[in-house]
Design goal:
The complex is a heterodimer of chains A (278) and B (383). By secondary structure, chain A is α/β, with parallel strands linked by helices. Chain A has 10 helices and 8 strands. Chain A has a single domain, classed as 3-Layer(aba) Sandwich (Rossmann fold), CATH 3.40.50.1820. The termini of chain A are far apart. In chain B, helix 3 packs across helix 5 and helix 6 crosses helix 7. Chain B starts with a strand and ends with a helix. In chain B, the strands form 2 sheets. An 8-stranded parallel β-barrel of chain B has the order 1-2-3-4-7-8-9-11, surrounded by 8 helices. Chain B has a two-stranded antiparallel sheet with strand order 5-6. The chains are: A alpha/beta (278), B alpha/beta (383). Chains A and B meet through helix 5 of A and helix 9 and helix 10 of B.
Chain lengths: 278, 383
């Protein structure tokens, strides 16, 4: 059984003045090789089941991304490529050697940007329904401009699950932190909406072993995006999670965990891919 | 007490089926170009009439793409240019420019031109606009507050700086620029800020601006007025000497020969006004667009907004409007008394009054204006 999570903070100097520095809050637990979990669009509400499971085999670090939760946001950080710089500094500051990086949603996008900046410094990359590519942004639901009762349906297959409600509470329970996280995410991805205009043209440079994991029923970004990611990254592994939404570990926890652990240990996410690879 | 004719240029010809949940923005298939042309002329006639009748000013608002009353004034600068050539004495107030939706220098230049075209009659107002307008223009609402403040300061610098200057902002960067023409009024036209919250009042006080409140109760504007004075005291920054004289509020005025007639006609037009403005827009969805309101503001919105009506259920009862000070309606005698209350309770010294609102025909609006100007205004102008 993994130990309970601890909390810590880190001050990262960055740039030319004190105002550029970043105060990062993170939770961590476990022993073993380092693994960094980068949270989704509206922040990590708490220490979650998937963190606990991974802490059984890894030392897992779950930072609040800059601007989210208890982490600060300097003016110069305006998009996921900037966030990647901060996260690389985070890894350096903790002296993490070749960490595995798992990123969900915006976290997946950031993970890809990190690998593009410093491919040799990261272990394997696991991107779970990452933002960053968007085939038709005007046809994609606007998560910032929607009736609040509709909002969970943009992300989850089963919005009534307790884990889904933990990530997107009922409107009446939107806390100061949740509202702040929404605001910060809007700074990062409102325009261009959920995507980068250059990422598709850069992904061919990505050499870190990467798993693209996609909840097949993602109401926000359809599974065709998984194919696009897979086609742009040389030697990427693609795994589709049937019945999973934008955060597929909410609906299909075991299947997601199995794929992640399998990819980490064998370099493939499941038997089928293993055959294909051979 | 001063009275401005606030012209909405709202579209009065919408059928019921144009409005309803999910129908925002109202489709421009309901805009008839020929009727639109005639309406521009009629609305300009009403503004000319308020000049002839001796009112103090005219103001209009910027709205885009059917956002807000299906008004067809996306550019207040264009309307004020037309009005400046049709009127002689009215103050002309832009209330106001939605700074983050434009380049600030374009606003500075146009308003400076208007100041000359009008012989120095311009009052400039600054606001952020509706959150939905940011969705349409795809301007990040999370940046609207910062863009507004930075853009505002750039506009003032453009008006006041003599000789070329550079500006290095987060959103706007300018090199080797100086404005031609500089404004006629020096150092620049007076400024009305739309302000309600502590943050926006703090900003207004620090920039020595006058304050105008939107369509809210007299109690609410009194709180705003009090807060502005408190902030000024706390900061040790004196308000403009004539700050109180220019403390303004938006409201509806309708004067008729009998109470019944005034009530009935005003109610019908006001119902249309609110129905078309909010019958399609989901207020909750709009309010929750991140960034337009502060996180604190959103928290109190979430706690407070029990009623989120849409469609035909939206109605603004006239008795309530009169009681809370958002409407002055009745016979001339009644209206004189109600106008006095505006000042006593709401601290209002400028009434930004809609004489034409909703689907009120221009002929009735003209009668309303005439009756107000002859029977009411002379009794309140020296308050």
């Amino acid at each position: 059984m993994a130990p309970t999570a601890k909390e810590a903070t880190l001050d990262i100097p960055s740039g030319v003045s004190d105002a550029d520095n970043i105060h990062l809050f993170y939770r961590y637990a476990g022993e073993g090789p380092p693994l960094v979990w980068l949270h989704w669009l509206w922040g990590e509400p708490a220490w979650m089941e998937q963190h606990q499971r991974l802490a059984e085999r890894f030392t897992i670090y779950v930072p609040d991304l800059p601007g989210y939760g208890q982490s600060s946001l300097p003016d110069w950080v305006t998009n996921p490529a900037d966030l990647a710089i901060v996260l690389l500094q985070f890894i350096d500051a903790l002296s993490l050697k070749q960490p595995l990086v798992v990123g969900s949603c915006i976290g997946g996008w950031i993970a890809a940007e990190m690998a593009l900046l410093r491919p040799q410094c990261l272990g394997r990359l696991m991107l779970i329904n990452p933002l960053g590519l968007c085939m038709d942004w005007t046809a994609t639901p606007n998560v910032f401009y929607a009736a609040p009762e509709q909002v969970p349906n943009f992300f989850f297959v089963a919005a009534d699950l307790p884990q889904a409600r933990a990530y997107v509470p009922d409107r009446s329970e939107w806390s100061e932190t949740f509202l702040q996280n929404r605001l910060v995410s809007s700074k990062f991805v409102f325009d261009p909406y959920l995507h980068s205009r250059t990422l598709a043209h850069r992904l061919h440079l990505l050499t870190t072993p990467a798993l693209i994991l996609w909840g097949e029923e993602d109401p926000l970004l359809g599974v065709e995006h998984a194919e696009l990611w897979g086609s742009l990254i040389p030697q990427a592994q693609n795994t589709v999670i049937p019945g999973g939404g934008h955060l597929p570990y909410v609906e299909k926890f075991d299947a997601v965990m199995h794929s992640l652990l399998s990819f980490i240990s064998t370099g493939t996410s499941d038997e089928k891919n293993k055959e294909k690879a051979q | 007490m001063k009275v401005f004719n606030m012209a909405l240029f709202g579209w009065p010809y919408l059928p019921d089926e144009a409005i309803g949940p999910g129908k925002y923005p109202v489709s421009n298939e309901y805009f008839d170009p020929q009727l639109g042309y005639q309406l521009f002329q009629k609305d300009l006639d009403l503004i000319e009439l308020s000049d002839e009748l001796g009112l103090d000013g005219f103001n209009c608002q910027e709205h885009h793409g059917a956002g807000g009353f299906c008004a067809f004034v996306p550019s207040t600068e264009v309307i004020v240019a037309a009005v400046s050539q049709r009127t002689k004495n009215l103050k002309l107030a832009l209330t106001g420019s939605c700074i983050p939706l434009h380049h600030p220098l374009a606003i500075a230049e146009q308003v400076a031109q208007l100041d000359h075209l009008s012989g120095g009659r311009i009052i400039w107002g600054a606001l952020r606009g509706f959150a939905t307008e940011y969705i349409s223009y795809n301007v990040n609402p999370a940046e609207s507050q910062e863009r507004f403040r930075e853009g505002f300061d750039l506009i003032i610098k453009a008006w006041t700086h003599v000789g070329p200057f550079d500006f290095d902002g987060k959103y706007y960067r300018v090199r080797n620029y100086n404005i031609w023409p500089r404004p006629l009024q020096q150092p620049h036209p007076p400024i009305w800020m739309a302000a309600n919250s502590h943050d926006s009042l703090d900003f207004a006080v620090k920039r020595n601006a006058y304050v105008a409140t939107p369509f809210v109760s007299c109690d609410r504007t009194r709180e705003t007025w009090t807060l502005a004075h408190e902030i000024s005291d706390d900061l040790g920054i004196p308000l403009a000497e004539d700050f109180d004289d220019w403390f303004a509020s938006v409201l509806v005025i309708y004067v008729a020969e009998s109470e019944d007639k005034a009530y009935e006609e005003a109610q019908e037009a006001l119902d249309y006004h609110f129905f078309t403005a909010f019958g399609s827009m989901d207020l909750d969805t709009t309010a929750l667009i991140p960034g337009h309101m502060s996180v604190k503001g959103l928290q109190s919105w979430i706690r407070g907004s029990a009623s989120k009506k849409t469609g035909k259920s939206i109605r603004y009862p006239m008795a309530e409007a009169i009681e809370n000070g958002t409407a002055i309606v009745g016979t001339p005698e009644t209206c004189i008394e109600l106008a006095k209350r505006q000042k006593e309770i709401g601290k209002r010294n400028v009434l930004l009054a809609m004489f034409q609102f909703g689907n009120l025909p221009q002929e009735k609006a003209a009668a309303n204006l005439r009756l107000f100007a002859t029977e009411v205004y002379p009794h309140i102008r020296n308050l």
